[in-house]
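Aim 2, interim progress: modelling of the calcium ion-bound target.
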Amino acid sequence: MLGVAGIGLSACTGGGGGSPMVTRTVDPAMQPQANAGYDAWVAGFRGRAQAQGISQATLNAAFRNSGYLPGVIERDRNQTEFTRTLEDYLAIAASDERVSKGKAALSQNSAALTKISQQYGVEPEVITAVWGLESFYGERRGDISVISATSTLAYDGRRGDFFEKQLIASLKILQNGDVTAENMTGSWAGAMGHTQFIPTSYQAYAVDFTGDGKRDIWSDNPTDSLASTAAYLSRSGWTKGQPWGVEVKLPSGFNTAQAGRSTTRSPSEWAAQGVRDMNGRVVPNYGAASILLPSGPSGPAFMTFRNFTVITRYNNSESYVIGVGHLSDRLKGGKPIQGSFPPDKYGLTIDDRRALQRGLTAKGFDTQGADGVIGSNTETAIRAYQQSVGLPVTGLPSRALLASVT
Ligand SMILES: [Ca+2]
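Predicted structure of the complex, ligand included:
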């Protein structure tokens, strides 16, 4: 969250299948390794930490089993800035599996979620949707030492100031007794627990909802995490009972220059231009609204409201916000997105891509599922297939490839 890659949708997705990621890190690059430069940096850092109120004892406990993680630097360097299309993102964010697991999670935690919702004024489905996107309902919380990860990134320096702040916040959390250094684990970038709070967000928003005196977002019990997420959304201005947005139909000839978050009008002004919901009705007045066309004028259209902006405080990615919003709608029993997405850059629709994945798999080149998202598993299968039939090995989908496997 907050622009730091968590382990939710930013990793272990794509390429079909919903097999849960292994939760135990076996990668040796994610085990502390000797590094003299890092050690010297930590020695200097200890003084700065003490000046900010961190005790010698806390520092000793924190760094006893922590160290430099080369794998963290690797992940930081290899963050490809390619952005998934909204269609691919939603295929993952609101996959059948994520929706059905979310419904199960809602019912398993209904007592806690009801109380949390009453206290903070955020719908259970919205809290659960954040949980689903951030950690697949707790399955992918991350098991990397937060002290190791944040100190490695602070030492590395590419975003040194940011991660030194996260490291200081982590040490304050330890000093406060909320968790031990061994149990303070998270993603490679230091996002922790069921809803992937970075340490400074934890400091600002985490709450103890179970009443045991600890704000415990790390344990299997998600209650404190879910309440902390609700507290965060509430403090960011969430309005219960209002949608994040609704899918709409635009009239032909709609001036798409009005699309985008910077233009807001009342729903009645949009209605006067002919904008309707997917049932042909005027959208109720939920306050100032924008029209978003994330996949261009031929893709689905959304009318978004203030709650959309609230979710951006959690993660300022339009796809993320629509993902949370749409997943929460699905958990409430809502329909999939009804508008059709334009074909991808290869001229393939999601149905074409699914047919391609099924065709490859049937021929013995397993794409690990047929979700219509071309990820590394599908690319590997394409390469192997191309090689086997003597085609140029590109790993890229195409209409010709689809025709040859179906
Ligand atoms: Ca607690």
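The first strand starts at residue 144 and ends at 145. The CA atoms of residues 17 and 130 lie 21 Å apart.
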